[in-house]
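Exercise 3.2. Students should predict the tertiary structure of the chain below and write it as structure tokens, then compare their answer with the key that follows.

Predict this chain's 3D structure.
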Amino acid sequence: MSSSKNTRAAAGGVRIEHDSMGELQVPAEALWGAQTQRAVQNFPISGRPMPRGFIRALGLVKAAAAEVNAGLGLLPKGVSRAVRAAALEVAAGEHDAHFPIDIYQTGSGTSSNMNANEVIATLSNRSGKAGKARVHPNDHVNLGQSSNDVVPTAIRVSTQLAVVEDLLPALKYLRRTIDRRGRSLGRVVKTGRTHLMDAMPLTFAQEFSAWSAQLKSAEERLADSLKRLRRLPLGGTAIGTGINADPRFGARVARELSRLTKTKFDSAGNKFEGLAAQDDAVELSGQLNALAVALIKIANDLRWMNSGPLAGLGEIELPALQPGSSIMPGKVNPVIPEAVVMVCAQVIGHHTAVTVAGQTGNFQLNVTLPLIAANLLESIQLLANVSRLLADDAIAGLKVRHERVREALERNPILVTALNPVIGYEQGAAIAKQAYREGRPVLEVAMEVTGMDAKTLKPLLDPAALARGGIHG
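Answer key:
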């Protein structure tokens, strides 16, 4: 339970617990103890508890620590067995209701670490797996640990698992969906645009390939960040010196966590860095920020291409998912790309907060750890969820308006660029301006101005050939 040796029932659905600061009331059904209750009372700020992924990581760390401490001969096997079983229940999400502490708490995350220690101790004692031994939250569950190394470790474990298990698969899924649709539209040529103005033609496949390449680059950057994020500072305890921890503890826990999660973790070579600085977390946040920028680009391209359908570009039709207006009947909006933009705006905001938080480490400890954990995990979850949504509810079902695309392409005066090597830039500019002014196809105007016949000009102005770089490309 808490650090008290005795717990007595009290009237009104509460019990009395005590810690080093004295007695206080705790809800009778709560698995937590005194230190958690103090944090609940001290931080009624957002009403948002720490994320599920972070609680999972705390459980995994405590389970691995109990296993290692028993192997080192520091923890009785019965106590280790009880703690490990309870910690794995916490990791599995069976007791999330007993982790009520607000995100905005003590900057070291001590309150959340003690919350885990108290809940696991209570579950261990209730299970009877420790035999006659009484499991203590500090002496047993927290053995060889400090909040100062547990919480930075939990940040790294939780975010790495979220990236590996959720985000990277979601990005691969979105990329495969884009690639599949690109292949299906590989022969469809459209007007390219720079500065939002007509430019040389390209295929839908070529346009989609840029999106796919952006996502591939994002995946590679995220994977590279994980090489540093997987370094765990556990074993550094209070300030990085490793006081009260066996020198073998950190490396063995990293190996046990790798086994438990089937994801590689390493023991940090310098524990001082892992406590005092959160640069690895800031780096990951930066890669999430870059991914958000890429997704906004893709979403806004889709919004422009879908715009209209009469007064806009109207090149594609996104799936109609819901009515778009409470006053304009028949209006349908690009709701999925809009949701993508909002998610990415939030991720960019989270990155700003993580950046500020990352530099808030004075001497031997960063003191904004819960905020870093919460923002990273929310960003990862949002990006993973919206990537799958973008794939399934926008890109997979979009339709090309072929007639609209063909009409715009035929009247695109910029096609005359292909004639530069034959007639020169000046005459080409004159043809483009005349074609635009008169609303006529470039081919017709070029035949009149140059005196060249259609047989000669058509291969030079063929949009499909131009999308391949032209006859000289």
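Discussion points: The first helix runs from residue 34 to 42. The radius of gyration is 30 Å.
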